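In response to reviewer comment 3 from the previous cycle, which asked for concrete evidence that the modeling workflow produces usable outputs, we include below a single protein chain processed end to end. The sequence was submitted unchanged, and the resulting structure tokens are shown without manual editing.
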Amino acid sequence: MRVLSNVVVLSALLFATAAAAGTETATAPATPTVPAAGSAAPAPAPAPEAGSPPADVKPEDMPTAIRMRRLEERTQALKERTWQLKARIQMLKEQMLGGGVGAQAMIVHDNDMGSSFRLVKLVYTLDGTQVLAQSDDAAESLYKIKTFDVLDGPIAPGNHTLSMVATYRGHGYGLFDYLSKFTFTARNTSTFTATEGRIAKVDCRGYEKGGTATPMEKRAALDCKVTEVEPERPAAPVQSTPGATPLPAPAPAPTSTAAPTPAPPAPAGK
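The workflow returned the following structure tokens.
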């Protein structure tokens, strides 16, 4: 009987010890993993930038200061892009026009059409690039311009092709009022050579060719005349010696006119 009591006491002690050990195991904190010697420690996760909202936040829900900052960044990026485009355009312009030095071109169009034609459209193209385009669908003002300055400035030395198209509308009174329903187109292509240090002067005109027997659709015509002229050079400044004051021109000496000597009186008659 005494031995049984001892067994019961020992069993109770064993159950109590096991319960206490299980409680400590459940409540013990996890031991951090220590990296092995010689191995690199894992990099910590990057902390979000101070003041920047999460990526899933809508723009309208962001603070005003952050939205203004983003707007300034986008504006600055657009400005830089604009400056790059301007530089590119300037470079292309210099390549096309020969860098602003060398040869020059002066292209002029004169409107010499008769009263039966009214200019409604004029287009000039130089080497495939449009340099002049004017239109007047109502035919009320463009025909009144007698001279058009097509191009006046530097151009790349060498051969060039100038194309022009002029569109006219018929004009008449009374029995000839029907002419306003017709349009007439004249085309022409001219080539010229721009020489280094000189000006290529191209004088073009729209005119009415033929006479009364020429059909209306064959009267409108374009023609160009090419000449080369020397550029005007500035006059050289007059050099003067420093400190020297030019002397005034001497005044002319006064001339004295002697009074005529009176003739002697005639002798009295005897």
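The first strand starts at residue 103 and ends at 112. We consider this sufficient to address the reviewer's concern, and the full set will be provided in the supplementary archive.
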